[in-house]
Amino acid sequence: MMVPNGPEFVALTFAVFRVGALPVLIDPGMGLKPMLRCIEHARPDFLIGIRKAHLLRTVFRSPFASVRQAISVDGAFPGAHRLTAQGPRVVDLANTHQDEPAAILFTSGSTGPAKGVVYRHGIFQTQVACLRDTFGFQAGEIDLPGFPLFALFSTALGLTCVLRELNPSRPATCDPVKIVRAIQEFGVNNLQGSPAIWTRVGRWCEQHCVRLPSLKRLLTFGAPIPPALMARWADIMPPEAAGAGTCVGRPLPGVELAILAITDEAIPEWREDLVLPAGEYGEVAVAGPMVTWEYDGLSEETRRSKIRQGDRIWHRMGDMGYRDEQGRVWLLGRKSHRVEGRVRYYPEQAEGMVNPHPLVARSALVGVGERGAQAPVLVVEPEPEALKYDRRRQEELAGTLRRILSEHPVYRDVERVLYHPAFPVDPRHNAKIHREELAAWASKRS
Fold first, then answer.
1. CATH class for the domain made up of 338-443
2. What is the CATH number of domain 142-245?
3. What is the mean pLDDT of the chain?
């Protein structure tokens, strides 16, 4: 499926589901070469896409070698059938079972090579039910999804989708005026998308004293949620919106969650002694009927991410965190981003201490050196443009940030503060920081 976000994408995806075929969805924002690798790995039988996709197929033939039939959705293209509307007609629904594969959705590739996640019909059904029951969605509500895939969930929930002009590969470049205008014009009840979108839109609303009384929910995902974003939207939305920190609440109904001792090794079979008590830091793992079973054709990645417990599957999230005494879950960053030195350093803990400073746009704690002997380094993207070139102010801010960190018994070890003009981030959410790149950059300045 190589169709842009819009009504055609939603209709075509459900049409593919209806006949029992498996749509393969790949985020084009990952870049051309990674996308072509994903296509070659998936070995699709059909290509449903716009003319630009078919032009890509003619230029790069090898990744598309498995395609037996090509279908163009936006006009004629040599070698492709042209899709035309034939009016409403009844099509028999494919007879599928809940354990049968339903789709292959590729990850963004922001923390390693993109992997094709196999979704099954039962997983999709459980996820839709979980969303409905948890957030209280009602058929007929108006939804504005900031991520194309969620338009499919919204439709399955009976919501009306407002598909605003938005580049899913560059959400941080969204036009806040157009988004706010759509919310006001259609009385949108529900917003979804990357923190990068709602930070940009929220700032505009704050600057222009705009309130959005029709909103009931703001769902954001893909990266840590800044406290300033939640505080800002608490004023923009009706009073029910609130929250702070990196607390993500309690497990949803049907989800079993455990905190496991951190290890990079595979865990083939579940053991109760893997589970840590409340308050101890570890890796978040989840089980439930909405949890996927494997990565498509990637047995080693599946082995490292999945744990069998009889006929159940536990998924290792790759996120570090802990549970408090009230049962709430707090996230501390990705396991692959931890810094192993004198002690173990958790990036989001340190970043949460310094990010509220008004001169800090964002920060990243990275490790310099070999794993086990890494030195923690704080890399800062400063907020004001002038600070990027003002050495005196940079030194003053670095001293302030070190004093903030020194109040914590672990992060007082952070002695070096570096400034980076623009953090490398993922294309899907424009918010996940490419910490490996920053660590390599910081090591060259050591």
1. alpha beta
2. 3.40.50.980
3. 90
